[in-house]
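ESCALATION

Customer reports they have been waiting on this structure for their group meeting. Please prioritize. Original submission:
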Amino acid sequence: MATLLLIDDDKEVLQSNKRFLSEKGYQVYTFDVPEEGIRSAQKLKPDCFILDVMMPGMNGFEVCEALRKFTAAPIIFLSGKGDEEDKIKGLLRGGDDYVVKPFSLNELDARIKVLLRRQQQLKGAVQQNKSVLVFKNLKIDKIAHKAYFKGEDLGLANKEYMVLCYLASHPNKEITFEELGKELFGMYTENDRRSVMVNVSRLRKKLEIDTELLNYIETVWSRGYKFVVKD
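Update from on-call: job pushed to the front of the queue and completed.
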């Protein structure tokens, strides 16, 4: 049974969502005070988070940043604002999906299932004799679902790790936006290109600590990316 943690200042919405998701077979914890939700998350270790964006005091983006300090579990934002700028802001803060209100609870359930399935696939993606990828000072551990540079954990969020792992698993090969999008989201339309680019941008920001790391990912103009490994 997958565990969900919901944070929303609207108690009625929380109870409604909890009732529906519980009937779908999830174990659901709800919090209307963001700080309490964050503290509890460290003990509960939920499989997925659902955060309302517009909350008084600590908003959903700030909650996401706090959660990303100790968890790589998928995070879904719920918001009444559907403009592109707000969606990009959510992705850059560490979110995995962004759902605009009003929405169908069946759609939310489907999005949760997609993210959980992808998470499980990543955890089980151990290729024989290729569970660890090593490129000079960069080590990608597919079992631990982590990347290290000079022995230090890079602290990558879920999608950032997925981008790095997929590109590094195909060294010196051009990976199109479509290929990377299918890896990240399970499906791809041309509208997803922006989301792919945002996730690559997030990864690159984490790699700015050293030029060796930055030089691995090369942009293939108008087509995609390449993980460059030199002899």
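Sent to customer with the following note: The chain has two domains: 3-123, 132-227.
Escalation resolved.
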